[in-house]
Amino acid sequence: MKQSFTEFLNGLTSGFTPVIGGNYQHSDYVAIDLSENSRDLLKLEVASSGAFSVFVDEFLKNREAKAAFGGYNELRTLYNRSELFNNEESNRNIHIGLDIWVPALSDIISPLDGKIHSFRDNDNFGDYGPTIILEHNYEEKTFYTLYGHLSRESLNGLKAGTVVKAGDKIAELGDFHENGDYAPHLHFQVMEDMQGREGDYPGVVKKEDLSSFLRNCPDPNLLLKI
User: Helix-strand-coil percent breakdown of the chain, rounded to 5?
Assistant: First the structure.
């Protein structure tokens, strides 16, 4: 039987595989719920990136953790503040990447060998901000990883095709003024097929399109194993 992309992705790593540089250990991470069912989030004024930062900092402090993660296939109301997602044509509110909440300027490292596929500053309000996409080829299988909400400086001097090794620093996280107006975090996503896109790929989708996007974008934690 042919191996599925999900099975292939899960088999690439045998244990916790960092994408945040520095001294973060597996035990430093804690899951966070930012879905519409989160009672804590409903108390928060989500239109303020500053308030959201305080919320995340307090969440980590109360759990004696250094990094929060989660959000794959999560229905969120926090995107309602942005016309990019909430408009007459569609209501995109289902998150299909994995978010990792750590401080601005944290190092972002490649979890796998690869090369730079493309990059762009997606500078709409509520968008990714500076974004890098890597291309990977393992066992004659090509796929892609996306890193969103980076610093603008991270894009300086980049060239498509530049080779990176697993563990190499590829970027730094941006702050709210350059990352789409969010509390600092990495949006990490895996795509089997870029479908002709460069420097961008949807990370929030509408319910009607969800099944096809989930097939192309499996849970990134299959790879990272946080």
Answer: 20, 30, 50
For 5-11+19-219, the fitting CATH number among 3.40.50.150, 3.90.1150.10, 2.70.70.10, 3.30.420.270 is 2.70.70.10
Tokens of 13: 């790593």
Residue 202, both tokens: 């949807």
Q: Is this model's pTM higher than 0.70 or not?
A: yes
Q: How do 186-191 and 29-31 pair as beta strands?
A: unpaired
Distances, alpha carbon 122 to alpha carbons 146, 200, 203, in Å: 13, 7, 12
Q: Among candidates 76, 133, 67, which has minimal Cα distance to 100?
A: 67
Domain boundaries, the chain: 5-11+19-219
Neighbours of 222 (CB within 10 A): 19
How confident is the model over 72-99, as pLDDT tens digits? 999 877 654 444 444 445 566 799 999 9
Structural tokens at position 179: 């990352």
Q: Average pLDDT, whole number, for the chain?
A: 90
Q: Which two tokens stand for residue 68?
A: 């929060």
Q: Could you give the 3-state DSSP secondary structure of residue 198?
A: coil
122: Cβ–Cβ under 8 A, 6 or more apart, which residues? 128, 129, 130, 131, 148, 180, 199, 200
